[in-house]
Each structure stands twice: as C-alpha cells, then as structure tokens.
Amino acid sequence: xxxxxxxxxxxxxxxxxxxxxxxxxxxxxxxxxxxxxxxxxxxxxxxxxxxxxxxxxxxxxx
Length: 62
Fold this sequence. Notes:
- By secondary structure, this protein is mainly α.
- Helix content is 68%, strand content 0%.
- The protein contains three helices and no strands.
C-alpha cells in the first residue's frame, strides 16, 4: 500500500504523515515553533545525525 497516495493532501497546508509515535512528538514540537523548544529540537537532531554518521563510518569499515 502506498501511504502517500492514500492520504488526502490539502494544498497550502502543512501535511504530515506520522508513522511512529516519537515522530508525532517531534512534529508537534516543530509545529509549536517556540524558541526554547526549537533549540532543544536542534540539539536532538544534531545528536541523531552524529550517531548516524558514526554508525555509517563504522559500517563502511566492515
């Protein structure tokens, strides 16, 4: 099933397709657009990116 083709997308509106509950939390924080939350979200994203880059580097050495 193609989830994107099964969802009605309104033009000019923010569209989100949430599959995991933690993604819903991040989407809500981003939608609130509060400076304090935006800073915490940026730090969390930076941490996730660092972990992914480290895992990718480790994988490439195998």
